[in-house]
Design brief:
alpha+beta; 7 helices; elongated; 21 strands; single chain; about 25% helix
Length: about 500
């Protein structure tokens, strides 16, 4: 117990008797005010006390600690601003000896039980701090200021585990807090309900900066090693952060032309053309996942992250099985979209080659260097055939005339059914969605068959004719097939 005239008492029997222990504090002036007392969360005989003497025209900080119930005290004021009153000092319940002190000019942190102090800024204003509170479960620090409201420093695990050993290590990946699986945001850590980035925050420390594209990779897998997604990390010296928003990879995007208004088509936004989209795929189920951080030239390090369900709502009976079914179907539909996009990309590549070759052969023919009239006609016919197939699944004239992207019926229907499968929560896919999906995937299989026949028959015939005239042949990839049952859920199909 502390009083407004600078006295500190302690009881060991629930308040029946009290011992005055402030007389044991050496060098403490009289008539101060006990601002805050914090009993250590690790030891009931350890405590930290901040005294204020500004009303006696004394602005020095007076901060003390005891580890024997107040019999002896040690000043831990050295390193704090010499002309700034201290208001509060508390110990982190997750890290013994980690102290935070609030003064009239801001926050200070100590990693060695108050032997040394450093300012804790990170954008924190110069403002009096009247109280601080640690949130043990969430590893947060709440700060009550005088004039700037209440501020929150989220996920201070990197601060808690800061040490010389970490600073000298080439790579350190910190423990990752639980990510709550909310459809509208993330409980307690921002998102739709709180204003801020949702997802699992992955922190890692680099002794030296690493440069180059893809120098840091963050791979998310399930505990059996099956891939969920891979994220690109930053390579700055010191602390780095990557956020996994709890999604599988989205469908591979298509590389398609832009209209004269600058519009290009992708099934879902974000991601580079031809690459999976990290934040556009189905949501991972509640469970534990492995996070592996790989830095070029170093051994990878791993941590685990737990994805938990929304604790505010009861989980219906059978929800786990329903969610597994929904995930399985969404992953399969995602992979089918990837096959569709791959076909679009290859069709576009084929048409680009044909147009370039026709132009080249016309130039040669006009210059009297060979007769390519028959081959040009064959290339034109093949180009029209590829264009006809493309038009069924992708409208290359989208956006012309007004700033609008026009999709074909097939595109819209497939996107719609994929999003419906991806949006189910605690329930199995609806029969109407499954019926629509069956219709769309049958159509897709037909289009893929047309494409593969085009490549296997028409392109091969053209290449034979081109080779016979010593013209450039078409470079083509292998067939595009309907994907097999995809992902984690396929191995556990009900």
């Amino acid at each position: 117990m502390g009083t407004d005239d600078g006295l500190v008492h302690v009881t060991h029997n629930g308040g029946k008797t009290w011992d005055k222990v402030s007389d044991n504090i050496q060098g403490l002036p009289q008539w101060g005010r006990v601002q805050q007392i914090d009993v250590s969360p690790f030891d009931p005989n350890s405590a930290y006390v901040a005294f204020d003497f500004h009303m006696s025209d004394n602005d020095k900080p007076y901060v003390y600690k005891t580890h024997d119930g107040g019999k002896t005290w040690t000043s831990i004021s050295a390193g704090l601003p010499p002309k700034t009153s201290a208001r509060v000092v508390r110990e982190d319940p997750n890290q013994r000896g980690l102290l935070v002190c609030g003064t009239d000019t801001g926050l200070f942190i100590s990693h060695d039980d108050g032997a040394t102090w450093a300012p804790l800024k990170r954008g924190f204003p110069t403002v009096p701090v009247y109280d601080v509170q640690f949130v043990k479960r969430d590893h947060d620090l709440l700060v009550a200021t005088h004039g700037r409201g209440i501020l929150q420093l989220s996920d201070i695990i990197p601060l808690e585990q800061a040490s010389a050993a970490v600073a000298d290590a080439p790579l350190t990946v910190y423990p990752i807090l639980t990510d709550y699986e909310l459809r509208g945001g993330k409980l307690g850590r921002g998102g739709f309900f709180g204003g801020g980035a949702n997802g699992a925050h992955i922190y890692y420390n680099l002794k030296d900066a690493v440069k180059g594209r893809n120098a840091v990779k963050v791979a998310i897998t399930d505990m059996q090693g099956r891939a969920i997604t891979t994220l690109n990390g930053t390579g700055r010296q010191g602390l780095n952060e990557v956020t996994w928003r709890g999604n599988y990879d989205g469908p591979v995007t298509a590389i398609v032309p832009r209209s004269r208004y600058g519009f290009g088509f992708r099934f879902r936004p974000a991601g580079r053309p031809g690459q999976p989209q990290p934040d556009a795929g189905p949501r991972a189920l509640p469970g534990t996942y492995k996070v592996t951080v790989t830095v070029k030239g170093q051994a990878p390090q791993t941590q685990t992250v737990r994805v938990a369900g929304d604790p505010r709502w009861p989980v219906p009976a059978g929800a786990a099985a329903a969610n597994a079914t929904s995930l399985r179907d969404a992953l399969e539909a995602r992979d089918e979209l990837s096959s569709l996009n791959e076909m679009l990309t290859r069709l576009q590549n084929l048409q680009n080659q044909l147009k370039a070759q026709q132009a080249s052969m016309r130039t040669l023919q006009e210059g009297g260097d060979g007769n390519y009239r028959s081959l040009i006609g064959q290339a034109s016919a093949l180009d029209k055939k590829a264009n006809k197939l493309e038009y069924v699944i992708y409208n290359p004239d989208q956006g012309k005339g007004e700033a609008t992207a026009y999709l074909t019926d097939f595109q819209q229907d497939f996107q719609s059914v994929y999003r419906s499968l991806d949006s189910q929560w605690n329930r199995a896919p609806r029969p109407s969605d499954l019926a629509e999906w069956a219709k769309e995937r049958t159509q897709l299989a037909g289009y893929l068959n047309q494409y593969n026949t085009l490549m296997r028959v028409d392109v091969v015939a053209y290449n034979k004719a081109a080779a016979a005239q010593h013209a450039i042949t078409l470079a083509v990839a292998g067939p595009v097939t309907m994907p097999k049952a995809a992902g984690m859920a396929a191995a556990n199909r009900p």
